[in-house]
Structures are given as C-alpha cells and as structure tokens.
Amino acid sequence: MTREPFETMPDVMDAKQLAKALQISKAGAYNLLNEPDFPTLKIGGRKMVMKRDLLVWLKRHTNGQEP
User: Fold this and answer.
1) Cβ-contact 25, 66 below 8 angstroms
2) CA-to-CA distance for 12 and 33, rounded, in angstroms?
3) Is CB count within 10 Å lower at the N or C end of the chain?
4) What pLDDT sits at residue 65?
5) Helix (H, G, I), strand (E, B) or coil at 46
6) Which H/E stretch holds residue 19?
7) How do residues 9-30 score in pLDDT, each as one tens digit?
8) What is the mean pLDDT of residues 30-49?
9) Contacts of 39 (CB under 8 A, 6+ apart)
10) How far apart are CA 51 and CA 21, in angstroms?
C-alpha cells in the first residue's frame, strides 16, 4: 500500500479526502467535521475543511498544546 503525501491533497477537502489525509475512517472524518472547534467550511450542504486550516488545527491539538 502506498501512502499519498499530505502535500498532494487538495486545498479544500471533503470527508473522504480528510479521512485519507489523516488515515482515519470516513466516520471519524465526519466526527471531526462536526466538532465545534474544528475549522469546518460549509458549502451548500457539504462540510469541508481547508488544508491550511486543518494544519493549524492539527498543530494546536498536538500533544495537548491548545492555546
């Protein structure tokens, strides 16, 4: 199994792409998209996340380092 580098993921990701980027289940991605502090972008009825916002969110939540 080859792993696609995170850098090649699209700038705006849906749940399926988010799951692939983080190597989590699609259900896990939907859970993240529904978290109140997760940087969700709503387009129509779809919840998405911008890659740059995801990176910031991940850094804030790494090793319990919340601001």
Assistant:
1) no
2) 13
3) N
4) 57
5) strand
6) helix 15-22
7) 999 999 999 999 999 999 999 9
8) 95
9) 49, 50, 53, 54, 56, 57
10) 10
Residue 15: CB atoms within 10 A of its CB come to 20
**One-letter amino acid of 11:** D
What letters, b where the CB count within 10 A reaches 16 and e where it falls short, cover 24-35?
eeeeebeebbee
Domain-by-domain residue ranges, the chain? Answer: 13-62
The b/e string for 52-66 (b: 16+ C-beta within 10 A; e otherwise) is eebeebeeeeeeeee
Number of residues in the chain: 67
CA-to-CA distance for 4 and 57, rounded, in angstroms?
Answer: 21
Q: What Rg, from alpha-carbon coordinates, does the chain have?
A: 12
13 neighbors 49 (Cβ within 8 angstroms)? yes
